[in-house]
Design a protein that fits this description.
alpha+beta; 55% helix; binds 2-acetamido-2-deoxy-beta-D-glucopyranose; signal; EMP70; five-stranded antiparallel sheet; Transmembrane 9 superfamily member; elongated
Length: 581
């Protein structure tokens, strides 16, 4: 079994990280340098992209290249590199050369006009360095549209490595029927002092990401955490101590007195707190997935901090998928053991649900958006081969690993060693004040956690939907940890109030109260869509809201699980110290 798994891991690893020559990033003089054409799309929406050659640009004359490379992560992000056909040789200057000449027919004219009117940009890569260029220019007063036909590449090199690229677009030609477009290029090599390690620095935007507001918000959240932790521990200590005192006094009274006395509060529900919540199957699948996602988030962010992953296209997504697959046993272990403790019988069904909950959600959303993308011919459409790869990762890696985890979890941690016995008959939940109802407590629970992360959300959204490279993963890790602490504090308080109101349904309510953070994030995403982006149309709207829903759901599972873990520790603690006859 283990053998099979390790073989599969190796295979999946090689699917995920197909490497090529460009990975060494060193060149000898006159060695071939490949200019890759990536995508073209409107400037105002970085996520709406089409293949570069979907516009009637022409390909250069060179047809053979010595290597090709693409990773799963790239493909999932809609990166589909095509060779430009231009001859570029390391340190070999190319004077202005015509690589093809096109005469515009009606259809091509219409396409180019559309692109220029919508501020289309295109993107290229040379030695993994991104290059952006604008398609054309318009003169609205005269209602004239131009296209840039000359690409001037200034490439800086440091010893045997490429460290800098500038593109200048020149020679604009008026777009009209029958116009001759001589597409030309030019390459100038210049020695540069930029160090290879620093070559991505010019794409980063410290004045945006390290803005005072960003630092301030983190400082703010941090203070909030300290305040909250202090407050929560103080209140709980005091009230709990009072509760214990009251309960121990009760014990000294005889039964008669006790019946007349004021018996109320969380101790009353000791026979029900560890009662299995409704929908145990779904609940344990969510918690298992949550444990896994927490681990994946933590590992990916840490790797991003260490490895400066932004310098390689798609590597973050590839690594994310790889780590998700590799951590599947965690999901099985925690989901399976929880299900066993809750006395669940259909553990195989529970395991399947645990394993496929998130993949099904992600694939379902991606599939739906893909349909629309294919209809619009966008380059976001995910190739069929990639879908097959994803499905096989799910069935041949994630499922067996989840099985291993589930079996381990059921056997090692499947015993329900609760501190209190569960009564045979469920206690009725008494009438409560309106603000103690679940539909009030649950949405209230998300407010503070959302408050601690929403500025970071702005930076993450902006880097995803606009031309910015996110690189401040240290901030992200900090915010993630702050979020965890805030969520735990808030859900513990919620659970305490609920239990005091003799409502013992703390499992789902702590999960949902924490997960409601994601609901606010989604509302914020809607706000962001309306006021901060310039997207429009069916494709862009579904794309945005589809992926944002996925993001929010994932976040919701993470925060929900964090809330549940914190609360269950708390509940266990308070009921284990109280003596029950
Ligand atoms: C690219 O442009 C920048 C800013 O104008 C300049 O400092 C740099 O030297 C240019 N690089 C090359 C290789 O021409």
């Amino acid at each position: 079994m283990i053998n099979v798994i390790s073989t599969l891991l190796v295979i999946s690893h090689s699917i995920l990280f197909v490497s090529g020559d460009e990975h060494t990033h060193t060149y000898t003089d006159k060695e071939e340098v490949v200019l890759w054409m990536n995508t073209v799309g409107p400037y105002h929406n970085r996520q709406e992209t089409y293949a570069y050659f979907s516009l009637p640009f022409c390909i250069g004359s060179k047809s053979e290249i010595s290597h090709y490379h693409e990773t799963l992560g790239e493909a999932l992000q809609g990166v589909e590199l095509e060779f430009s056909g231009l001859e570029i040789y390391f340190k070999g200057n190319t004077p202005k050369t015509v690589y093809c000449e096109a005469t515009l027919n009606e259809e091509q004219l219409k396409t180019f006009l559309y692109a220029v009117k919508n501020h289309y940009w295109y993107q290229m890569y040379i030695d993994d360095l991104p290059i952006w260029g604008i398609v054309g220019e318009m003169d609205e007063s005269k209602n004239e549209y131009y296209i840039w036909t000359h690409k001037k590449l200034d490439i800086g090199y440091n010893k045997n490595q490429i460290v800098d690229v500038n593109l200048t677009s020149e020679a604009k030609v008026l777009l009209k029927l029958g116009a001759k477009l001589p597409f030309t290029y030019e390459v100038n090599w210049k020695p540069s002092n930029i160090k290879f390690e620093d070559r991505f620095d010019k794409y980063l935007d410290p004045s945006f990401f390290q803005h005072r507001i960003h630092w301030f918000s983190i400082f703010n959240s941090f203070m909030m955490v300290i305040f909250l932790v202090g407050l929560v521990s103080m209140i709980l200590m005091r009230t709990l101590r009072k509760d214990y005192a009251r309960y121990s006094k009760d014990e000294e009274m005889d039964d008669m007195e006790r019946d007349l006395g004021d018996e109320y509060g969380w101790k009353q529900v000791h026979g029900d707190v560890f009662r299995t919540p409704s929908h145990p199957l779904l609940f344990s699948a969510l918690i298992g997935t949550g444990y896994q996602l927490i681990l994946v988030t933590f590992v990916v962010i840490s790797l991003a901090i260490i490895g400066e992953l932004y310098t390689e296209r798609g590597s973050l997504v590839s690594i994310g998928i790889f780590i998700y697959a590799a951590t599947a046993p965690v999901n099985g272990y925690f989901g399976g053991s929880l299900y066993a403790r809750m006395g669940g019988k259909v553990w195989i069904r529970q395991m399947m649900m645990s394993a496929f909950l998130l993949p099904a959600l992600v694939c379902g959303t991606a599939f739906f958006i893909n349909f629309i993308a294919i209809y619009y011919h966008a380059s976001r459409a995910i190739p069929f081969s990639i879908m097959v790869a994803v499905v096989s990762i799910c069935t041949f890696i994630i499922l067996p690993l989840t099985l291993v985890g589930t079996v381990l979890g059921r056997n090692l941690a499947g015993q329900p060693n609760y501190p209190c016995r569960i009564n045979a008959v469920p206690r009725p939940i008494p009438e409560k004040k309106w603000f103690m109802e679940l539909f009030v407590i649950i949405p209230l629970g998300g407010i503070l956690p959302f408050g601690s992360i929403f500025i970071e959300m702005y930076f993450i959204f902006t880097s995803f939907w606009a031309y910015k490279i996110y690189y401040v993963y240290g901030f992200m890790l900090l915010v993630f940890m702050i979020l965890v602490v805030v969520v735990i504090c808030v859900t513990i308080v919620c659970a305490y109030f609920l239990l005091n109101a003799e409502d013992y349904r703390w499992q789902w309510s702590s999960f949902l109260a924490a997960a409601s953070t994601a609901m606010y994030v989604y509302v914020y995403a809607t706000y962001y869509f309306i006021f901060k982006t310039k997207m429009y149309g069916l494709f862009q709207t579904t794309f945005y809201f589809g992926y944002m829903a996925l993001f929010s759901i994932t976040l919701g599972i993470i925060t929900g699980t964090v809330g549940y873990i914190g609360t269950s520790k708390f509940v266990r603690k308070i009921y284990s110290t109280v003596k029950i006859d």
